[in-house]
Write a structure and sequence with these properties.
By secondary structure, this protein is mostly beta strands. The protein has strands spanning 7-9, 20-27, 30-32, 34-39, 47-52, 57-62, 70-76, 83-88, 91-102, 105-116, 122-131. The chain is globular, with a radius of gyration of 13 Å.
Length: 132
């Protein structure tokens, strides 16, 4: 099932980054530095925000059936604008809950491989843990 691409609304606060984030991400052929991660649950999304250089972020979502499979990717050029682009169902991987909590937010871990083409070319692989 393909999801229609469009504007993705949501709040993205760049704080609480975890220390266990690794991988490589390219956006439109340019390497993006991975700076951390956070759970997007406090903002009402079931996923993880991968924090990038220049205050950009990728939001990785679980599928609509509630499994641990990552299928949707959102991109925020300017997180303070509260708007992003739904890049599409172009990632495979998993998001798992950990047994840790910080300020009431459960830590998340997992990995994702991205191969997105339209409307934005995003590729790479990322692993993350203790995102809260």
């Amino acid at each position: 099932m393909r999801i229609r691409r469009g504007l993705l609304m949501g709040s993205l606060i760049v704080s609480g980054a975890c220390t266990a984030t690794d991988g490589t991400i390219e956006i439109e052929g340019e390497q993006a530095a991975i700076e951390g991660c956070r759970s997007s649950r406090p903002d009402g999304w079931d996923g993880v925000d991968i924090l990038l250089d220049r205050k950009r972020a990728l939001r990785l979502f679980r599928d609509s059936l509630g499994s641990d499979t990552v299928v949707l990717v959102g991109f925020f050029e300017d997180p303070s604008s509260n708007a992003g682009i739904l890049v599409g169902d172009c990632a495979v991987g998993e998001i798992k809950e950990q047994d840790w909590f910080s300020e009431g937010v459960q830590h998340l871990e997992g990995e994702a491989t991205l191969d997105c083409i339209d409307p934005l070319k995003v590729s790479g692989h990322v692993t993350f843990a203790h995102c809260h």
